[in-house]
Recover the amino acids of this structure.
């Protein structure tokens, strides 16, 4: 465990100059919007996606020849490198998801938008009270459902891409993450269109829970399943790369 913590810290030090300003900028903007009660619901998703920008430089740095040479001289095992890699990616997404949900809670409790001029206050109030996404024919789900869905999707796809990259000995390509994520969102949008046109039955009736307690149970269960799948990918990677040179 100590080896994993040290390696994650090493990755952070390696990439913080390029990653930290971007992520902190997104976080500060999100916090200000939340405190004033105008945390745009769609911005919630962009904050989650921003977490990819936080560890993307690390994903690239760990594949450079000079980093590989450092791996060869550090007194840690290959298994520790692989476990640290997967832990870093999954914890990054879960942390961003948690931060986003906290900011959504702060936004819900805040009404500081009332200090703004009247016309702007009305606009901010509409954003503040937006809690759900509505479509025709009864398709409806909360923004928190979308946040959890995006987070779980990122955990699974990043872990899968990391597994393939390590086994096939090629660089982690952040474009693959963005491509698969975009395809999944496209499928999601197409499914909404099909529902609104009556081609398939509304899935929100059985997929998204209607109560707050149900939403938390649903979210925790999905996250736990995604992390478990990531751990499985990690074990597969360890087994397949056991004979690789460090």
């Amino acid at each position: 465990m100590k080896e994993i913590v040290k390696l994650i810290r090493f990755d952070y030090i390696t990439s913080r100059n390029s990653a930290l300003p971007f992520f902190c900028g997104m976080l500060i903007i999100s916090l200000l919007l939340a405190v004033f009660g105008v945390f745009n619901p769609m911005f919630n998703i962009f904050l989650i996606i921003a977490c990819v920008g936080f560890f993307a430089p690390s994903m690239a740095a760990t594949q450079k020849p000079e980093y590989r040479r450092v791996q060869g001289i550090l007194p840690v095992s290959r298994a520790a490198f692989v476990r640290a890699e997967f832990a870093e990616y999954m914890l990054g997404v879960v942390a961003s998801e948690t931060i986003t949900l906290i900011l959504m809670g702060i936004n819900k409790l805040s009404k500081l938008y009332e200090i703004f001029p009247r016309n702007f206050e009305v606009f901010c109030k509409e954003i503040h009270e937006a809690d759900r996404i509505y479509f025709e024919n009864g398709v409806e789900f909360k923004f928190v459902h979308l946040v959890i869905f995006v987070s779980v999707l990122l955990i699974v796809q990043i872990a899968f891409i990391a597994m393939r990259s390590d086994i096939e000995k090629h660089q982690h390509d952040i474009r693959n993450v963005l491509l698969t994520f975009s395809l999944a969102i496209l499928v999601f949008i197409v499914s909404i269109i099909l529902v609104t046109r009556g081609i398939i039955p509304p899935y929100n009736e059985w997929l998204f829970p209607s109560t707050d307690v149900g939403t938390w149970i649903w979210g925790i269960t999905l996250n736990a399943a995604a992390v478990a799948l990531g751990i499985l990918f990690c074990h597969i990677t360890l087994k397949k790369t056991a004979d690789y040179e460090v």
